[in-house]
Amino acid sequence: MTQTITYKQNPPISDLYKAFMDGFSDYMIQFQLDEPGFESVFLVRDQNQPSRSIVAYADGQPIGVVLSGIANLDSGFRTRCGGLAIAPEYRHLGIAKELMRRFEEQAKGVRLLEVIKGNDLALALYKRLGYEVVREIFYFQSIQTETKATFETEPIQTLFEEAYSTSGHVPIWQQDARVTQQPADVELVRVKEGEKEGLLLYRGNVLLDVFGEDDDAEWILRAAASRHPIQLTITSDRSSLLSAAKALGFKQGELSQYEMVKVSA
């Protein structure tokens, strides 16, 4: 019996949740989330906007989803695919390709997404759609460290007026406060020792970002981890931070990702 596949943008959150959980049921990472947890993590924290996200239905039942968010930064629009998943029994029917076509149709500016290393089918699909790997994403857990540095909490406005405006790096989507728009959940700290100085952006025990000189990378990470153990994400284009994390003995997670980008025509 042939089933009718339909698509809906801005679907109910319950349909986003069901399609997401079914689509990722056999994924390399197991998501243990109820609906409020899904909404808190993937819609609120990661700024995937239901109004831009699309669900595929088979005879009225949600069986596929593409999550999407958009941000307008000084550098222009950035549109992110925050998750693409199809229920196992509905794969290889062209649904993923059609969801991405609809995602592309409404996207503005640079398109970006992340793919777990080892997910070769997804990597191949995105490459066929014109996405290119621009950097790798690595995850670390710190060890306890000691420092003589001093810490002073900064007004969050300093993040936007000073840190981002003078920074030479581009944070990944999920850790860019300009994108996630959650300054109430983050803490900006100025760290100093002698003539050394930097800024640290925390969200709880997660170190979201580091602003400082490359030559001070080991010093600033040691200071960052001295307050309490931290989790941190480091991209391959920040080689000084990668080297510092390894030199300090931070434990690198087994999971790593590719960030892929497609520039609009």
Rg to the nearest angstrom? 20 Å
CATH architecture descriptor name of the largest domain = 3-Layer(aba) Sandwich
**What name does the CATH topology of the largest domain carry?**
Aminopeptidase
Task: Spell the H/E element sequence.
Answer: EHHEEEHEHEEHHEEEHEHE
- Which sheet architecture does the biggest sheet show? 12 strands, mixed
Helix content: 25-40%
Shape: elongated
Summarize the structure.
The protein is an alpha+beta fold and 265 residues long. The protein folds into 2 domains: 5-108, Aminopeptidase (3-Layer(aba) Sandwich), CATH 3.40.630.30; 139-258, Aminopeptidase (3-Layer(aba) Sandwich), CATH 3.40.630.
Molecular structure report:
With 265 residues, this protein is α+β, with helices and mostly antiparallel strands. Helix content is 29%, strand content 35%. The chain has a 12-stranded mixed beta sheet, with helices on both faces. It has 2 domains: 104 residues, Gcn5-related N-acetyltransferase (GNAT) (Aminopeptidase, 3-Layer(aba) Sandwich), CATH 3.40.630; 120 residues, Aminopeptidase. The radius of gyration is 20 Å and the shape is elongated. The chain is built from 8 helices and 12 strands.
Question: Which structural traits does this protein have?
Answer:
alpha+beta; 29% helix; 8 helices; 35% strand; elongated; 12-stranded mixed β-sheet; 12 strands; Aminopeptidase; 265 residues
Topology overview:
Blueprint: E1 5-9, H1 13-23, H2 35-45, E2 54-58, E3 61-73, E4 76-86, H3 95-106, E5 110-116, H4 120-128, E6 132-141, E7 150-154, H5 157-166, H6 177-180, E8 187-193, E9 196-203, E10 206-211, H7 217-226, E11 231-235, H8 239-247, E12 251-262
Parallel strand pairs: 4-5, 10-11
Antiparallel strand pairs: 1-2, 2-3, 3-4, 5-12, 6-11, 6-12, 7-8, 8-9, 9-10
